[in-house]
Amino acid sequence: MAGLGGVGTGAAVTKALDTTGLSPLARERQAYRRSRARRSTLVALASTLVFAAAVLFGVTSSPGWPRVQDTFLDLEVGWSALPDVLAGLWLNVRVLVVAEVGILVLGLVIAVLRTLRGPVFFPLRALATGYVDLFRGVPLLIALYLIGFGLPALRLQGVPTDVAVLGTITLILVYSAYVAEVFRAGIESVHPSQRAAARSLGLTHRQSMRLVILPQAVRRVLPPLLNDFVALQKDVGLISVLGAVDAIRAAQIASARTFDFTPYVVAALLFVLLAIPTGRIADAVAARAARREGLR
């Protein structure tokens, strides 16, 4: 009889569950969460629309709006300048890709040099520290002038004279100092027990760094690393001060030809569209890292 009673109770519980395996209470809670989520989304959308409408009304009702619209938002001028600005943006993208690869390699090398232990490596640590201090302290614009105009003035054999190449070299040198500190923070955040465990398994210092320390360090610093590359996407436009015809220089030429600032707005919008995907990737990686830490 007890067995039959157990079977009856199990059947009642099974009947109370739906095909998804949720009890009525769980389904009720799930429905409540969904309704709250929909309500929050609608409230956020409504508040955003109200705020945008208020800003739009405030801007368009200002006394100087007709002049601003004619000077910065001329659709005809913007459309005519778009092909040249896009061609210049392609140069920015190429410089960005090459600079990112160079920054990752050089920054990682400098970070590893700064974390070397032992008095015999003091000259390398001092050299890496001096590099970081120098290029973190020099403003990027001044570094572009010094390297972009100073190196060709030396007239040395093998020194590039192309302004895009010189601008890329400057970006790599400056941003590597920042990225090196990001990598170094990641390396030092790995617990010393990881290094000791790797050495106890018979791994050399180089193998421990390559197989144990660096993979953990890189995974931990991905969010700030991606944020640095978002900033790099904007600073790539500074190579225009050397005379490279990138998006900003193309906008400047079109603006000088038409006496209108709309080409600058077109270039700004293109840079924003270029930065949005990387920004969303950085947010996703940061959220994933936060969830991983929370699970731990």
Automatic annotation (TrEMBL):
<dbReference type="Pfam" id="PF00528">
    <property type="entry name" value="BPD_transp_1"/>
</dbReference>
<dbReference type="InterPro" id="IPR043429">
    <property type="entry name" value="ArtM/GltK/GlnP/TcyL/YhdX-like"/>
</dbReference>
<dbReference type="InterPro" id="IPR010065">
    <property type="entry name" value="AA_ABC_transptr_permease_3TM"/>
</dbReference>
<dbReference type="GO" id="GO:0022857">
    <property type="term" value="F:transmembrane transporter activity"/>
</dbReference>
<comment type="similarity">
    <text>Belongs to the binding-protein-dependent transport system permease family. HisMQ subfamily.</text>
</comment>
<feature type="transmembrane region" description="Helical">
    <location>
        <begin position="261"/>
        <end position="282"/>
    </location>
</feature>
<keyword id="KW-1133">Transmembrane helix</keyword>
<keyword id="KW-0029">Amino-acid transport</keyword>
<keyword id="KW-1003">Cell membrane</keyword>
<keyword id="KW-0812">Transmembrane</keyword>
<dbReference type="InterPro" id="IPR000515">
    <property type="entry name" value="MetI-like"/>
</dbReference>
<feature type="transmembrane region" description="Helical">
    <location>
        <begin position="134"/>
        <end position="151"/>
    </location>
</feature>
<dbReference type="GO" id="GO:0006865">
    <property type="term" value="P:amino acid transport"/>
</dbReference>
<feature type="transmembrane region" description="Helical">
    <location>
        <begin position="85"/>
        <end position="113"/>
    </location>
</feature>
<feature type="transmembrane region" description="Helical">
    <location>
        <begin position="42"/>
        <end position="65"/>
    </location>
</feature>
<keyword id="KW-0813">Transport</keyword>
<dbReference type="InterPro" id="IPR035906">
    <property type="entry name" value="MetI-like_sf"/>
</dbReference>
<keyword id="KW-0472">Membrane</keyword>
<dbReference type="GO" id="GO:0043190">
    <property type="term" value="C:ATP-binding cassette (ABC) transporter complex"/>
</dbReference>
<feature type="transmembrane region" description="Helical">
    <location>
        <begin position="163"/>
        <end position="183"/>
    </location>
</feature>
<protein>
    <submittedName>
        <fullName>Amino acid ABC transporter membrane protein (PAAT family)</fullName>
    </submittedName>
</protein>
<feature type="domain" description="ABC transmembrane type-1">
    <location>
        <begin position="89"/>
        <end position="282"/>
    </location>
</feature>
